[in-house]
Amino acid sequence: MNLQSQPGSGPSAYRILREADLRDYLASLPAIVAQLGGAPADWSISEVGDGNLNLVFIVKSGSGGLAVKQALPYVRLVGESWPLPLSRAHYEHMALVHQARLAPMLVPAVLHHDAPLALTAMELLEPHIIMRKGLIEATRYPRFVEDISTFLAQTLFFTSDLALSAAEKKQGIADFAGNHALCKITEDLIFTDPYRIAEQNRWTAPYLDAAAAAFREDLDLHVAISRLKLKFMVSPQALLHGDLHTGSIMVTDSETRVIDPEFAFYGPMGFDIGAVIGNLLMAYLASAGHERTEGERASFEVWLLETIEGVWGEFARKFLALWRSEANGDGYPPSLFTGEAGAARLEVERQAYMARLFQDGVGFAAAKTIRRILGLAHNIDFEWIADEKQRAICEARALKLARNMMLEAPSYTTIGAVTYAARELRHWQPDFAR
Amino acid sequence: MNLQSQPGSGPSAYRILREADLRDYLASLPAIVAQLGGAPADWSISEVGDGNLNLVFIVKSGSGGLAVKQALPYVRLVGESWPLPLSRAHYEHMALVHQARLAPMLVPAVLHHDAPLALTAMELLEPHIIMRKGLIEATRYPRFVEDISTFLAQTLFFTSDLALSAAEKKQGIADFAGNHALCKITEDLIFTDPYRIAEQNRWTAPYLDAAAAAFREDLDLHVAISRLKLKFMVSPQALLHGDLHTGSIMVTDSETRVIDPEFAFYGPMGFDIGAVIGNLLMAYLASAGHERTEGERASFEVWLLETIEGVWGEFARKFLALWRSEANGDGYPPSLFTGEAGAARLEVERQAYMARLFQDGVGFAAAKTIRRILGLAHNIDFEWIADEKQRAICEARALKLARNMMLEAPSYTTIGAVTYAARELRHWQPDFAR
């Protein structure tokens, strides 16, 4: 046993790092000193975390920089009253290493990991910005469809039963089983609280009071969200990022990086796919709230809808291509689909598999949308619309779309049906707006 | 670390036990000596294992007895060329302890477990016999429906997301993830080999040659079995027995004991349910082969069909009752189904859940049937029909039923539809019989 992993002893014993502590700690790591260059005393270090859970430091020397993320033993947004295990840094590190192998250049490079300190030092992403902020500014990202569809296809396919033996798959599931506290956050905040009275829920009052009440009383919706929750808990199809919204993606014109996989676990593929699609749908329906003059964002909005279609289309194309060429797992044994007829029948089944996956994605996209409007954690797509009534109008459109997607998922047979429904709601006016 | 768990050292280091070794070993255990009574030299010890995998010893003194099961490092039926991990004894012991708590008196009591020796000493079941043998003799078991439905309802419900928190559930899945070698046997022998050319396959030739070829070429069936295989690998709904055929059940007129859970893992509930139903359907369609005069087993066969209906009916009734009164898990949160309307809507969803479970059971029952006729491991229901043509006729009926159940599972909406289909085939004649 490594003594350094004993709490309270050794140089790496857990303690919350301040800037000065971090400087001393990093200065003790030769590889980091070499990477940064310059004298440790000259490094600039600042804590910049704006997420909900962790400390994030930017460290810069004259010639280089890095990002350091340290988990806190509680939820940063809430404080010590909501404890959260440090082990999430371990799972995040494991996921990052895995993703780097499967989707090179699409996640930040890990430079150093210290398990007892729950700390990871990573490549500094500069001049990347959080994609959500870019979308609010109507910035288009020409690489995004290509990159995110590669990330999804590679990470999901190669951790699925289509690529792994059942033994490898079970080992992977077991490796991430301990990350249950992070899964529990999702189970509560996405799949339960928005549909019941919960202290932490909030919404744009008074405009959405009636909608929030309706969601709390809609039993068909409660059955639908409960089925999705069960699917989330009991379908370890692949290693998920687990929190793949546009705030977990950093972008430039020419690069895309997926960050923050601390919610990683083996779950239903549709959850990651739905996270991307749902957050893009929210960006689309929030866009009207960021207009200064009517129609000024019209071509950006067209790009957003094309992007949504592209994410699914390219993901499906790449996933299917991998399935056709890299299917070394225990699922769908090739020996049962030999010859021309076998190949043709398997191809039909691949399409059917993708259709089932798409249904899951539609449902989860809806769940991710609803939680951002009626639950605890909102997003700036809507929050940065200063006019509360205008914000509520945009949110009401998203709620209407999401409710329909969740209840009628099987009727959305193509991604075009989803973007069509979103476009139809772009100018819809809720009762309170009339 | 316990030195006794090091291979090759200490008193419990693994070695294959002979009768004499076992006597010395048991004589060194005070609790066992007290349990058995008498002088160790006077104990009678005989190896009686007739299963496919392990050694089984019966140890008797003048006043008592016990059964000792030791795992071999290979498949007994095949020999050292097919290695199999000793760890299965660990998983079997964990499952037995779990089942004893959930279904008291329905599994053999564990008296002693030695992990390094891969050995478990258990209550001697006497005068119990293997149920499959009793069914061949047309013996009815009045306790069976009551007991097996209790076993299924209790073990499946209380290890599901309806009863456990998501964290407890993930821990359970991880605890059994290492039993993948036993799962792999199922994945290969049940879900793959019978549908392709495999050296170990056998069937009653020449009568079933055409049927075996048809099963190897039926691509719709290959899709159906592949979907079931994927469900088996990726649906950890509950802790399964994993091998719940009528050879894993010991019975008397008044008692039922489920034995041999070494295939235990978290999987789809329908797999255990389908195992029981499928094996009873085989007993039913094998029954004609054990007639000496036509119709002499008619009332036994009626009892068998009633038993099949009773197994599902009572299981569903008990499972639903547990769900209504003991639902402390994270699935279907009660707070989403409050008031009279909520309770009514949840009850509708419970019925829908059971319908989905039944579909799974129908599919898995079919898979369990087909593997016993076209795969490696056959069962004595059919094997003990000495007249090969008569045996093949019975097997052909079972294959026809199973094929239809697998391809048309959704059309079997009730257990009555299953027993009706079986009854319709009871006198059906395949081409080769005409």
From TrEMBL, chains A, B:
Domain Aminoglycoside phosphotransferase, chain residue ranges per copy: 45-277
SUPFAM superfamilies linked to this entry: Protein kinase-like (PK-like)
GO molecular function: ATP binding; S-methyl-5-thioribose kinase activity
Domain of life: Bacteria
GO annotation (BP), single: methionine biosynthetic process
Alphabetical UniProt keywords: ATP-binding, Kinase, Nucleotide-binding, Transferase
EC number(s) per entry: 2.7.1.100
Subunit structure: Homodimer.
NCBIfam families with a match to the protein in the record: MTRK
Protein name: S-methyl-5-thioribose kinase
Species the sequence originates in: Bradyrhizobium pachyrhizi
